[in-house]
Amino acid sequence: MGWEEMQVRGYPEFVRTAQSYHGRPIFALFCGDKDAEGRSWCPDCVTAEPVVRKELHNLPDESVFIYCLVGDRAYWKDPNNEFRKNLKLTGVPTLLKYGTPQKLVEEECFKAELVRMLFTED
Amino acid sequence: QAHKEEDNPQKTMEVNGLTPVPDSYDYDLIVIGGGSGGLAAAKEAAKYEKKVMVLDFVTPTPQGSSWGLGGTCVNVGCIPKKLMHQAALLGQALQDSRKFGWQFTEEVKHNWMTMTESVQNYIGSLNWGYRVTLRDTKVTYENAYGEFVGPHTIKATNKKGIEKLYTAERFIIATGERPRYLGIPGDREYCISSDDLFSLPYCPGKTLVVGASYVALECAGFLAGLGLDVTVMVRSILLRGFDQDMANKIGEYMKEHGVNFIREFVPIKVEQVEEGTPGILKVTAKSTTGDQIIEGEYNTVLLAIGRDPCTRKIGLDKVGVTINEKTGKIPVNDEEQTNVPHIYAIGDILQGKLELTPVAIQAGKLLVRRLYAGATTKCDYVNVPTTVFTPLEYGACGYSEETAVEKFGEENIEVYHSHFWPLEWTVPSRDNNKCYAKIICNIQDNERVIGFHVLGPNAGEVTQGFAAAIKCGLTKEQLDSTIGIHPVCAEV
């Protein structure tokens, strides 16, 4: 069985989804919300998303890829938002391997090599 | 046949009678060892757009412990040590806090697993960070055991046993050291070392620490600080190589604060009384001054009797690199070059040099700048400051009192010293005569400060600035004319 993608919005939905896949490798990409035309308020997220998507075929079997929209710009800027407080996120986009200290932040997500390393190496 | 030739270009060429001189090597530089020195050198070389490979491999301990990229300091040395030392200090601070007005009714207990998980999580982020940096700077990293098989060829074996050959113009050996075992029955089966302690998946309980190195005393110190019953078994003196006056003060403080010492004994046997995590071990020890035999039972036995360089099984004999057969250390010239011109060595494995992370990093960076950026600066191994993170911290820079007397003669040095009582210790009624500072001055050279020693809280922070001053040639007069900051320990 290859990998599968789940799309979620907001912290509670993210946590529920991650917990439901407990036991499988979980990778998550956090981006700013998109408007009606599908454009994110976060320009770096716009750059990173296609780079990440292009590497998804490298995900290990049984993995789950959670694409998570964090909220609008105001929510994100709040230093006490749940993503910052509980997941210790410091910026968007963030691409991480859930339950490990392995993550790529902001411009690191633009680099296909790093994304591939996160997906394929221990 | 074609496949075999590809795997063994050196061999084929030798058979043909030609001296192997490949037109181009796979890499400009291969660094064997991804620790403090190795990574610093590799990253620096990448700056000059050299093609660099780092090989890092951790042979698991007898207990099965292993770790990621970054070397001893990051994984099983300085970093977890300082964090656990901090955990112990916080325990002390909690006790002190009551005198400063903080009220909490529950008894304060320590959870080993919570601390260890947090520490390991941080280490994991460092391992990952190094891998990102290496990939980002285009340094090739392989988690494989490197050994020389030819003058310019390394064989790299990964954990699945797959072998690959790589060639390079130059090599830097930065393989570091691993804890030594006693060579007595039961040591590898039942004892742990610092390689295991920082990721131990259960609380060590009642612990016997064998050794009197800074590793032994720092570990014994924080384990006791976390509330565990700790005994240190010492063969002869404490902290060999350090100022003995200071070493004894450290020992006294630890003894007064709950660490048991068994002096002039060495273990001769370790047996398992009960299996478990932890189990119960019985240690039999013999006196070094007579025939007396003693026995004791502990949950954990931690060996910290020294570290041995990882230089015996990396094929140095195949390429003619001389090592000190007795110690395994590699002698190098003042440019970190071994007796083989294109092979260099840095870090803990060097003969006669300090075993410290910042020294390895500095040596690695400067070496690479000399190799690829036309620099000439050599690593300055003189007046390197250091700190021992025992419960009462000890910072030092320069000569110990004994070494100064030996080198300059007792009549030519002057020692100025003072006890001090940190202001923060007054209210909680902590020891008023334990913190101590001394400087050793060379009378014949304007009373230049040649040795600085301080025993007290934040010793490392205090010492760093003085190290810079000593590098600038600090004299007693200049020190006297520097007005102190008040109220801090450093003003003494």
Structure in words:
- The complex is a heterodimer of chains A (122) and B (492).
- Chain A is α/β, with parallel strands linked by helices and 122 residues long.
- Chain A has helices at 11-20, 43-55, 73-77, 82-87, 112-120; strands spanning 4-9, 26-31, 64-69, 94-97, 103-105.
- Chain A has a single domain, classed as Glutaredoxin, CATH 3.40.30.10.
- In chain A, strands 1-3-2-4-5 form a five-stranded mixed beta sheet, with helices on both faces.
- The longest helix of chain A is centred in the middle third of the chain and has 13 residues, at 43-55.
- Chain A starts with a strand and ends with a helix.
- Chain B has 492 residues and is an alpha/beta fold.
- Chain B folds into three domains: 27-176 and 310-373, FAD/NAD(P)-binding domain, CATH 3.50.50.60; 180-305, FAD/NAD(P)-binding domain, CATH 3.50.50; 393-481, 2-Layer Sandwich (Enolase-like, domain 1), CATH 3.30.390.
- Chain B contains 16 helices and 22 strands.
- Chain B has helices spanning 2-7, 9-15, 36-47, 71-76, 78-99, 112-136, 187-190, 194-197, 214-225, 244-256, 316-319, 357-372, 401-408, 423-426, 459-471, 476-480, and strands at 27-32, 52-55, 140-142, 144-150, 153-158, 163-173, 177-179, 192-193, 207-210, 230-234, 260-263, 265-274, 280-287, 293-298, 300-303, 307-309, 343-345, 386-388, 394-398, 413-420, 435-442, 448-455.
- In chain B, strands 1, 2, 3, 4, 5, 6 and 17 form a seven-stranded mixed beta sheet that branches. A five-stranded parallel beta sheet of chain B has the order 8-15-9-10-11. Chain B has a five-stranded antiparallel beta sheet with strand order 18-19-22-21-20, with helices on both faces.
- In chain B, helix 3 (36-47) runs parallel beside helix 12 (357-372), helix 5 (78-99) packs across helix 6 and helix 5 (78-99) packs parallel to helix 9 (214-225).
- Chain B is globular.
- The A-B interface holds A 100-104, 108, 111, 113-114, 117, 121 and B 121-122, 124-125, 127-128, 131-132, 135-136.
